[in-house]
Design goal:
about 230 residues; alpha+beta; twelve-stranded antiparallel beta sheet; 12 strands; disordered N terminus; disordered C terminus
Length: about 230
C-alpha cells in the first residue's frame, strides 16, 4: 500500500490518508450555533446562499474504508475560503494527534507520523504523500452540497429540494457523494452525514457541529436587508 502506512501504526495512517481527501482551505474565529428546524427554500436559492458561505468550521467523526481496512477518528476543521487559509486537526478517540494541517494561501504544511511536509500545490502535496491525486478544491463545494463544475450532477429530494446525491467526473475519475440527516445551522440547511466514494475507496463523515462565523452571518443578513 502507501509507504507512509507501512508501520505498526498503520491504522492511524489510514485515517490520515482518509482525511487528506478533505484538505481544502480555511481558518477563522467561529460562533457555535444550535441546529434548529429546516428553512424552506428552493434548490437554486440554497445554492446562491451557500456560495456566499466562505467561513465555517465542522467537528465530528470520520471513517475510512479501503478493502478490508477500516479506521476512524475525530476531526476539527476550520475554513476561511476568502483568505485560502485552514487549520485541521485529526485525533484518535484517546486524544492522540494523528494529523495536523495548516494552510495559508499557497503555503501548506502537513504533519503526520512525526514528519512535516511542505508544498505550494495542495493536490500535488497530497499526491506525494498518499500516492494519488484527490479533489481538494471540489470537496469544499461538495461538502456544502453545491456543484464545483457545471457538469456536476445533483439529484434532489422531492419534498425538501435538498441534495440527495452528487456525482462528478473530476480529473477523469468518477466521484459520488451522498447526503443525509439535514439540520439548520444559523440559517443554513446543511447535511450532517456524508459518504464520499470512488472506485475502491469509501469515506463516511458524521458532523456533530457546523459552526458559522459571526462576521459571515452578519454580512449575509446585511446583504439580505439591502436586497
Amino acid at each position: 500500500m502507501i509507504k507512509i502506512f507501512n508501520t505498526a501504526l498503520s491504522s492511524y495512517h489510514l485515517v490520515s490518508f482518509a482525511f487528506l481527501t478533505l484538505l481544502l482551505s480555511g481558518c477563522s474565529t467561529m460562533l457555535n450555533k444550535t441546529p434548529s428546524e429546516l428553512i424552506k427554500q428552493s434548490s437554486q436559492q440554497r445554492i446562491e446562499q451557500l456560495q456566499q458561505l466562505n467561513r465555517w468550521q465542522v467537528k465530528g467523526k470520520i471513517a475510512f474504508y479501503e478493502g478490508s481496512n477500516r479506521s476512524s477518528a475525530t476531526l476539527s476543521w476550520r475554513v476561511n475560503e476568502n483568505k485560502a487559509q485552514q487549520q485541521l486537526n485529526l485525533t484518535t478517540y484517546l486524544g492522540i494527534n494523528v494529523l495536523q494541517l495548516h494552510s495559508n494561501a499557497n503555503n501548506h504544511k502537513i504533519q503526520v507520523d512525526g514528519k512535516t511536509y511542505h508544498g505550494k500545490d495542495l493536490e500535488a502535496l497530497i499526491h506525494s504523500i498518499a500516492g494519488f491525486p484527490l479533489p481538494t478544491q471540489a470537496l469544499s463545494f461538495w461538502l456544502k452540497g453545491i456543484p464545483y463544475q457545471s457538469s456536476d450532477d445533483i439529484i434532489y429530494q422531492k419534498n425538501t429540494e435538498l441534495p440527495h446525491s452528487l456525482s462528478s467526473l473530476y480529473n477523469n475519475e468518477l466521484w459520488q457523494v451522498s447526503y443525509s440527516n439535514y439540520q439548520q445551522f444559523d440559517g443554513y440547511n446543511l447535511a450532517t452525514k456524508f459518504s464520499i466514494k470512488k472506485e475502491g475507496l469509501l469515506i463516511k463523515i458524521s458532523i456533530k457541529d457546523w459552526m458559522i462565523s459571526q462576521e459571515e452571518t452578519t454580512n449575509n443578513r446585511a446583504t439580505n436587508i439591502i436586497k
